[in-house]
Write a structure and sequence with these properties.
Order of helices and strands: EHEHEHEHEHEEEEHEEH
Structural class: alpha/beta
Shape: globular
CATH topology: Rossmann fold
Strand order of the largest sheet: 3-2-1-4-5-6-10-8-11
Number of domains: 1
Radius of gyration: 16 Å
Number of helices: 7
Largest sheet: 9 strands, mixed
CATH class: Alpha Beta
Distance between the termini: 22 Å
Helix content: 25-40%
CATH superfamily: NAD(P)-binding Rossmann-like Domain
Oligomer: single chain
């Protein structure tokens, strides 16, 4: 299986690259900083240097050509400023989906955010509200496309060691989840047809990841 990950240098993406490459899959991580190529290689992947805020859809489609799964795990980050929350969390997500369609990559997984579904009801103009609105717009864009899509909304992220025990459902309520376990679920979603066309929430829980995926 060939998997292309947008935001390939992110903490979850690097964990996911290690998991997938360790299982013998080919992983390509999209990064905008060439200094990050070594980290992707150390995780067992291959880097493609592209800035999703600057590049055209055709260049991204070339990287996606021949892929089995496209995963959007990019984000502007907490210190990025409000403008980049739109250009990355919404705009780059839409560009990546455009490129997937152009390249004929049907399986598409997008990492969203818990609480994105209440973005339209929020009236504040703080950075977190702007972030949630961008994530919600990206979800709405993806849901309208002819792709085998899944949106995964993790709860509050931690760097605690993964337990392999989660709660994965259409609605989970608030909670926290280790980045290790998010990566493990993303790896499983690559080949879980029951997740297609669904927006799923993920927090820590008492169900083994394999069982949680099989129960969808």
């Amino acid at each position: 299986m060939r998997v292309v990950i947008a935001g390939g240098h992110g903490q979850i993406a690097l964990r996911l690259t290690r998991l997938l490459s360790g299982d013998g899959h080919e992983v390509v991580g999209l990064v905008r900083n060439p200094d990050h190529e070594a980290d992707i290689a150390a995780a067992g992947g291959q880097a493609a240097v592209l800035d999703l805020e600057q590049v055209d859809v055709g260049a991204v489609a070339k990287v996606l050509d021949g892929a089995d799964v496209a995963i959007f795990a990019a984000g502007a980050g907490p210190g990025s400023g409000n403008a980049r929350k739109d250009t990355v969390d919404r705009g780059a997500a839409a560009l990546f989906a455009d490129a997937a369609q152009q390249a004929g990559v049907r399986r598409h997984i997008q990492v969203g955010s818990m609480g994105a579904d209440r973005a339209d009801s929020l009236t504040d103009d703080d950075s977190f509200t702007i972030y949630l609105k961008a994530k919600w717009a990206a979800e709405e864009d993806l849901r309208a496309r002819d792709l085998d899509w899944t949106v995964l909304r993790p709860g509050g992220l931690t760097n605690d060691p993964g337990t392999g025990m989660v709660t994965l459902a259409d609605k989970t309520g608030n909670g926290r989840i280790s980045r290790d376990d998010v990566a493990l679920v993303l790896a499983g979603l690559c080949d879980t047809p029951a997740a297609i066309g669904r927006t799923l929430e993920l927090i820590g829980g008492n169900t083994p990841v394999t069982e949680a995926l099989n129960s969808l």
